[in-house]
Amino acid sequence: MVATADDFFFPGLGNPRTPNPLTGFIVTAVNVNNLLGFNTLGISFVCIDYMHLTDRTHLTLIHLPLRFLVVAEGTLLVGFVTSNPENRLFTNTLNEGDVFVFPEGLIHFQVNIGHSHAVAFAGLNSPNPSVITIANTVFGSTPAKDASILARAFQLDS
């Protein structure tokens, strides 16, 4: 197969996408599956659209091989938590044009705290990444985890 210019081009990230009302965001992935030029580079790219929050806050803790995030539109509160024993929280408020770097392997978050829709672009160090939503992973497994196991893990009385 001979490469063409289209193998190195992905259109449409400038078009707004409708975020999922449950999570408050939607991720559009650009990876080796839809941009062949990424083949063998070990990287990918995402565009994240965040919904404008009116009466509730969407805070979704996620794990994905995110390396850096660039805000294109809006204002985001972003952060990550270090591992045990400190579990230290690092946060920053990002505006258009700001960049934040996420260390590898740490749970991180982004929240739209602005007064309108927000958009960010992120570079990933995986050729075909997936989003791991922490709440779904912990509380939404099939079959469900025993409540006593979760209570103990979260140091709850019941």
From TrEMBL:
One of its GO terms (molecular function) is manganese ion binding. GO terms for cellular component: apoplast. It is found in: Secreted, Extracellular space, Apoplast. Keywords: Apoplast, Glycoprotein, Manganese, Metal-binding, Secreted, Signal. InterPro entries: Cupin_1, Germin, RmlC-like_jellyroll, RmlC_Cupin_sf. Its main location: secreted. Oxalate binds at H63. Residues 11-148 form the Cupin type-1 domain. PANTHER family: GERMIN-LIKE PROTEIN SUBFAMILY 3 MEMBER 3 (PTHR31238). Belongs to the germin family. This is Germin-like protein. The lineage of its organism: Eukaryota, Viridiplantae, Streptophyta, Embryophyta, Tracheophyta.
